[in-house]
Amino acid sequence: MSIEVRNITKKYGSFTVIQNLNLEIPTGELVVLLGPSGSGKTTLLRAIAGLERTDIGQILLNGEDATHLGPRDRGIGFVFQNYALFRHMNVFENVAFGLRVRPRKLRPSEKEIRDRVHELLKLVQLEEFAKRFPSQLSGGQCQRVALARALAVEPKVLLLDEPFGALDAKVRQELRSWLRNIHDELHITSVFVTHDQEEALEVADRIVVINEGQIEQVGTPEEVYTHPATPFVYNFIGRVNVISGQVQEGRIRIGNLEAEVPEGFGTSAICYVRPHDIEIETQRENQSENQSTNAIEATIRHINIIGPVARLDLKRSDTGEFIQAEISNDMYQRLGLKVNQPVYVKFRNLKVFAQEKSLGKGPQDDSEALPVGSVSLNANLHVS
Ligand SMILES: Nc1ncnc2c1ncn2[C@@H]1O[C@H](COP(=O)(O)OP(=O)(O)OP(=O)(O)O)[C@@H](O)[C@H]1O
């Protein structure tokens, strides 16, 4: 079943939690709502479920207006963070519950219920736990029961609100790939809420990045990671260096690097570069004295080797700003890098946002960065 959220707004008193939000989720997709705490993810999920009334806007399910349907009439299964299993029922009865409480006419026979529950317990790999009570299960097992219970009533949409939030890192990791496999098998349209970017990148077909009740970007994990649309997405997903730049006479300057910027860019810019998009050289490129180089000078202040990756903390010689770079351990060995060594830093992929003051929100202070241009620095700077 497809989901369409059309122009919804939700306020609590004078506080706007969601503003003019539009989102389309095609049938069979696993979409992750990703955003910081308080950004409105749960409110949006509850609006889709019919558990929350919105002030303005519509929710369409399979193209039909479901705005005024109650949760029971939407064909939706829900999995919450806190398991919400019935403590006095064993695993089998928990999963069977939704089928048993159906009106008599719609209720399956006892044999059908038994077959369905066993099928689901097999799917979530808990067949041998059917007789156990929730208190005799681990947190991860409880969540698998909760998922089986949600699936028992054959929902057309599955909504998961931080389902692995209460579990430790290793169990979370296992359950993510397990959930992904189950989704690939069943293809139920699913909306998964998390504030954990790693979880989102691993599980989602598409990620919806939400900030302050508005969508910042919708894209595949690869798109949002590699081509963040806004400074917020850059900061929120993955590691990033934030580098300030000056704009004068239509050109941006970062140390001795320069590039043209589009007209109307303003006078200051913030630049974002991922640590793995930084190249390190130990010698200045072969250029004549009065030509500016295409690298900036820095000193290595700290080296951290994490398996195949070398993480370097670099201090810019011109501004004293710190930059973090990630290179392969092989490259690190080849270059023979040492702490306090002067090096030359090149940016492979640097995104530049114009910064305008006093617009009330943004990644830093009271400023808002506007995505006006993107600059890549390789051999030379150029605006793309
Ligand atoms: N019933 C309510 N009354 C007033 N404010 C509310 C209510 N429910 C939520 N809020 C506020 O709305 C905002 C969004 O809440 P919501 O639970 O949707 O955020 P979230 O992104 O899911 O956060 P988290 O990741 O912490 O669960 C928060 O600032 C929250 O305090």
UniProtKB/TrEMBL annotation:
One of its GO terms (cellular component) is ATP-binding cassette (ABC) transporter complex. Gene3D superfamilies: 2.40.50.100, P-loop containing nucleotide triphosphate hydrolases. Residues 3-237 form the ABC transporter domain. It comes from the Bacteria. One of its GO terms (molecular function) is ABC-type sulfate transporter activity. InterPro entries: AAA+_ATPase, ABC_SmlMolc_Importer, ABC_transporter-like_ATP-bd, ABC_transporter-like_CS, CysA_C, Mo/tungstate-bd_C_term_dom, P-loop_NTPase, Sulph_transpt1. SUPFAM superfamilies: MOP-like (SSF50331), P-loop containing nucleoside triphosphate hydrolases (SSF52540). Keywords: ATP-binding, Cell membrane, Membrane, Nucleotide-binding, Sulfate transport, Translocase, Transport. Pfam families: ABC_tran, CysA_C_terminal, TOBE_3. PANTHER family: SPERMIDINE/PUTRESCINE IMPORT ATP-BINDING PROTEIN POTA, SPERMIDINE_PUTRESCINE IMPORT ATP-BINDING PROTEIN POTA. This is Sulfate ABC transporter ATP-binding protein. It comes from Effusibacillus lacus.
